[in-house]
Design a protein that fits this description.
Shape: rod-shaped
Largest sheet: 5 strands, mixed
Oligomer: single chain
Number of helices: 5
Helix content: 40-55%
Structural class: alpha/beta
Length: about 260
């Protein structure tokens, strides 16, 4: 645009300078008669050099402006390219973070399922140990009744033969159980250990269990251990019941008896 303006100014100057005058001896032109030329004051003649210099200055300014525009265009293109690179990097980082989050969510879900399965297994084991079988019956006398058959009471206590050789030292092995966290249950179980050892039973330890039956029971797991369980209940005193746990799986070795102390 600047170049076009400079060219127009130059053409006007040259046209004014080259305008033809009326030939000598000829009458002046109509326009010359209508408007006689005014005498140009000295010094008003167009300065062609100055006009050309101005045109050159305008062209230089236009070229500088175009160069600046080109520079700004290149800078904008470079900034847009850099911004696109950053956006691509952010998109990749976001995709990686989302994939990592999905993996963590899968791990958490798997851990929750495993914990739920463990809690269910522990609860099932506690229910199996705490729930007395239907065959359990309290012993009305120091010689308690056997759980199988439940209705047949045992005969009054009679001298028993030596215990079967099922545990170390030829004595039946007795394991006492009390509820975990119960101070009274632990004290009672530890007090029974000495009494059972004096009665010829291999009572070595008292174990804490998550749940215990609501009554005092002696459990046996093999048919041949039923008489020994009755003798053990008689040794413990009145109010102890005998439970037939022959159907429990996996059963402990023959000659093993369990004493369960209620939480009271």
């Amino acid at each position: 645009m600047v170049l076009s303006l400079a060219g127009a100014l130059g053409g006007m100057v040259i046209g004014l300078a080259l305008r033809p005058a009326s030939p000598p001896g000829m009458p002046p032109l109509e326009r010359d008669r209508a408007t006689p030329p005014a005498a140009a004051p000295p010094g008003d003649a167009p300065d062609l050099a100055a006009l050309e210099a101005e045109a050159a200055r305008l062209r230089a300014a236009a070229e500088a402006a175009q160069a600046r525009l080109d520079e700004l265009t290149r800078a904008r293109a470079a900034a847009e390219a850099e911004q696109q690179v950053r956006l691509d990097a952010l998109a990749r980082a976001r995709a990686a973070a989302e994939a990592q989050l999905a993996g963590l969510q899968r791990d958490i879900a798997a851990a929750q399922r495993e914990a739920a399965a463990q809690r269910e297994a522990a609860a099932a084991a506690a229910r199996r140990e705490a729930a007395p079988p239907p065959a359990a019956a309290p012993a009305p006398t120091p010689a308690p009744t056997l759980a199988a058959p439940p209705a047949r009471p045992l005969a009054p206590p009679r001298p028993e033969p030596p215990p079967r050789q099922e545990a170390a030292g030829g004595q039946p092995r007795v394991v006492l159980h009390y509820r975990a966290g119960s101070g009274a249950g632990a004290e009672t179980a530890n007090a029974l250990l000495g009494s059972l050892r004096e009665g010829g039973f291999d009572a070595q330890e008292a174990r804490a269990a998550p749940a215990v039956p609501s009554q005092r029971v002696v459990r046996y797991f093999h048919a041949e251990d039923a008489p020994t369980a009755a003798r053990l209940a008689g040794r413990l005193g009145r109010g102890w019941a005998i439970q037939d746990f022959r159907g429990y799986e996996p059963s402990p070795p023959a000659g093993t008896l369990e004493v369960w102390v209620p939480d009271r």
